[in-house]
Amino acid sequence: MPIDTAQFESLLSDARDIVLIGHFNPDGDAVGSVTAAWHYLKARGKRARIILPSPHPESLAFLDPEEAPILVCERDPQEARRLVAAADVLLCLDFNRLARTEYLEDDILASSAKKVLVDHHIAAELDRFDLVFSTTKVSSTCELLFDVILAMPDVAGDPGRIPLPCAESLYVGMMTDTNNFSNSVFPGTFEMASKLIARGVDKDGLQDKVLNCYSESRTRLMGHMIQDKMVVLPQYGAAYMLLSNREKDLYDFKPGDSEGFVNLPLAIRDVQVSALFTENFDGRYIRVSLRSKSPVNVNSLAVRFFNGGGHRNASGGRLYMPLEEVPACFEKALAAWTDEEKFS
Ligand SMILES: [Mn+2]
Known about the structure:
The structure is a single chain. By secondary structure, this protein is α/β, with parallel strands linked by helices. It contains 13 helices and 12 strands. The chain has helices at residues 6-14, 28-43, 77-86, 105-110, 141-151, 164-177, 187-199, 203-210, 216-229, 245-250, 298-305, 326-336, 339-342; strands spanning 18-21, 48-52, 71-72, 89-93, 114-119, 131-134, 231-233, 238-243, 273-279, 286-292, 309-310, 314-319. Strand 8 (238-243), helix 10 (245-250) and strand 9 (273-279) form a beta-alpha-beta unit. It is globular. The protein binds manganese (II) ion. The site of manganese (II) ion has 6 residues, from loops. Manganese (II) ion binds at residues 29, 94, 120, 140-141, 177.
C-alpha cells in the first residue's frame, strides 16, 4: 500500500531541532530505527539527536553516530528532558505506548513539539501523536521506516538514494526483530532485504557484528539455561526459564546477553509457548518475554496476565513479585488463558 508522506515531509522540512526516541531496554530494532532516521535526516542537512531511555547492547555500539552520540536518559536525565522540551519534532520509533520510554512520558506529552510515531506493535496510542505510521504487517519498525523513507520525495522510490549507514541500520533492525529471517517475515521483508543488499549493505558483515559477537560466558550461560533452568509443561505445550541476578553475576552478564534465549524452547516439537522471566538488575520487577509458534497469540497472554503486550508471536511485560513466585503465577495464567484468547 502506498504511504502518504506529504505531512511528514512538511513537518521535517520546517523542523530545526528533531529528537529521535527509542524504547527502554533498546533492542536491534530500536537502535536500528533511531540511527537509521538520524542518518537519513543528516543527509538532508537536518539537526537531530537520539535519546534512548537505557543503554543499548554493546554489539550495537557501531551504529551509534560518532558525530552526535546517543544520549542515554539514565545517564543524563536533565539533558534528555532539555532536548525533549526544546525539540520541534519528536520522532518516536519502535514503541506503541509512551510508557515504554520509562522516564520521558510526561516530558513528551508536555513538549510543544509535533509528535510522530513509526511503529509495528499492536494497539499503539494513536491519539497521543500528531502523525502516525503504524502497522503490524511488517517485520519490524525498521521495515516500516524503510517504506516511509523510500516514499519520501527526495528518495522517490530509489534505494540507491538511501545513505549507506541508514541502509545498514535498517537492515540490522529487520535482521534482529526477525531473528535473522526466522519469524515475523512478510513478502515485503524479503523485498526490503533484497533492495538493501543491492544498495550495498554487507549482510554477512552485519550478521557477524550483531549476531555472532557474544562472549564465551554468554554462550555458557545459554547452555546453563537450557540444561538447568528450562522447565517444560507438556500439559500446556509451554516451557519457561528464570534468570536471576545471581546467575547474571556468575556469568558476567552484559545488556543484550539474554537476547534470543526465549526462542530456544520453541525448537521443541510440542512447545507452542515459551517464556523467559528475568530479574531486573535493581530487583524492582521481573521482565517477562513471551514467544509462540504461529497460531498461538501470546499478546493476549501478555496483556491479560503480565502487564504488557506487543506482537502475536512475541510479547513482553512485567511482574512485580519475587522470582520464586513466578512459576506458580505462570502456571496459573496458562490455566486461566482461554482457547479463545490463545487463538484470537
Ligand atoms: Mn521492533
